[in-house]
Amino acid sequence: MKTSKQKKILSLLLIMSVFATPLQNTGITATSKTIKLSQKKLSLYVGKTKTLKLKGATVSKVKWTSTAKKIASVANGKVKGKKAGTCYIIAKYNKKSYRCKVSVKAKTTSTDQNVQQTQTPATVAPTPNNRQTAVGVDFTVQKYDAQSMTLSLQLTNHSGKTITLDDAFVIQKYENEKWTDLPSKNNTFKAIAMLVEDGKTTNLEVNVGTYYDALANGKYRIVKNIGSAESVYAEFTVTTGNEASTPSPSSVVPTNQPTSEQQNKNTSMNTKTVSEVSFSLISNTKTSIQLSINNNTEFMMTYGESYYLEKFEKDTWIPVPFVTQTPMFEAIAMVIDKDANTSWSTNWEKIYGTLEQGKYRITKDFYANDNCYKATCEFSIED
C-alpha cells in the first residue's frame, strides 16, 4: 500500500504535468491586431472638423500629417477644413503609412450643409431685361395645343458655337404695348442642361399648363435661357377654337428689347478666356477624363457639369459630334474658392461615344462677378 507521503508526491506530479503541457496543444493561437483607418475618404466644409482614428494602433505612437495644410490640417486625428480643394491625411505607425482622401468644400448659405446642391432643383431664372438676345439662334413655335396647353418648339443653332439650354422658361403676354411676365403657379423645373451643336436643329415640347393657368386670347411669347448671358424668344397667338400659333423667330429683336448695338454696350455677362482659371490633366481614356482645376483669382467661382470637346484637324479646332441628338447634363452648381484647386472628372461615352486617335481639348465655363471664364485643356487619344 502506498503511504500518505507517496500519495502527496503523486498528486504534485500530476498537477505539474498539466501546467507543462505545450500551448499549441490547447488549440489556442496568438493573433496580431489589424491596423486600419476609420475612413478612407472624408468630406467636410471649410471651417468644420471631423476626426479620424487608426484602429488597432496605440494612439500616442501615431503620427498625423497633411499633404496640403492650406486645404486641411490635422492634429491627433482631428481634421479641419481650411479651404476648398482635395488633399490626403496620412497616419504613420510602425513604419507604415495609412492614407485618407479629404475633400474640402466651400461654405454654403444653406441652413443644412449636409444637403448637397445636386438635390436642389432648378428654378425659373430667365430675366430678359438683363440678358442679351442670342444672335445666330432661330427659335420658333411650331404649334400650340390649347387643350393640353403644350407648345411644340424648334431651335436651330447657327451661332458658330455649341450652346446650352436649361429646362426653365417664362411666358409673357403683349399688352399695352409692352411684354409682361404672366404669374407662375409653379417655379420648379427639372435640373437638366442640354447642348445643341452649331448647325444642328432640336425639337422641344413644353407643357405650359404645369406652370401657368389657361391662356386667354392674345399675343404671347416664350422666353428661354441660352447659357448664362443670353435668351431666345418665340411668339405665338392664342385664339378661341384655334390651336395654330403665329411663329416668330427669336433672331428678330422683340419690340421691348434693345437693339443689338445697344445690347453690345450693356452686356450683363462678359466672357473671358484667361489664365486665371486653368485645367491640368491628371489622366484620360477614350471615354473619360480627370482634371485638376486651379482658381488663381481673388474671388470664389461656380461651375457646373456641362462642357464640350473639340478635335484638332487641318490646323483648326473642330467640335466633336454628339452621339445623341440633345445631350443633357445634370444642372448642379459647384464652388471653388479663391486661390484654390480641386479635381473634376467626367465620362462622355453617352454624349460623344469612344474617341478615335488624335489631339483633343475640353472646354468648361466658370462664373464669378458677372464674368464667364473659359478654361481649356488639351489631351491626346492613342491607339
Description:
- This protein has three domains: 36-105, Immunoglobulin-like (Sandwich), CATH 2.60.40.1080; 122-265, Immunoglobulin-like (Sandwich); 271-381, Sandwich (Immunoglobulin-like), CATH 2.60.40.10.
- Strands 11, 14, 15, 17, 19, 20 and 27 form a seven-stranded mixed sheet that branches.
- Mean pLDDT is 76; it is low at 18-31, 109-128 and 242-273.
- Helix content is 7%, strand content 47%.
- By secondary structure, it is mainly beta.
List its traits:
47% strand; Immunoglobulin-like; mainly beta; 7% helix; 383 residues; single chain; 7-stranded mixed sheet
Number of domains: 3
Q: What is the 3D shape? A: elongated
C-alpha Rg (nearest Å): 32 Å
Give the termini distance in whole angstroms. 96 Å
CATH fold group of the largest domain: Immunoglobulin-like
Q: Can you identify the CATH class of the largest domain?
A: Mainly Beta
The low-confidence parts are 18-31, 109-128, 242-273
Mean pLDDT across all amino acids: 76
The residue fraction in helices comes out at under 10%
The assigned CATH architecture of the largest domain is Sandwich
Briefly say what this structure is:
This protein has 383 residues and is mainly beta. 7% of the residues lie in helices and 47% in strands.
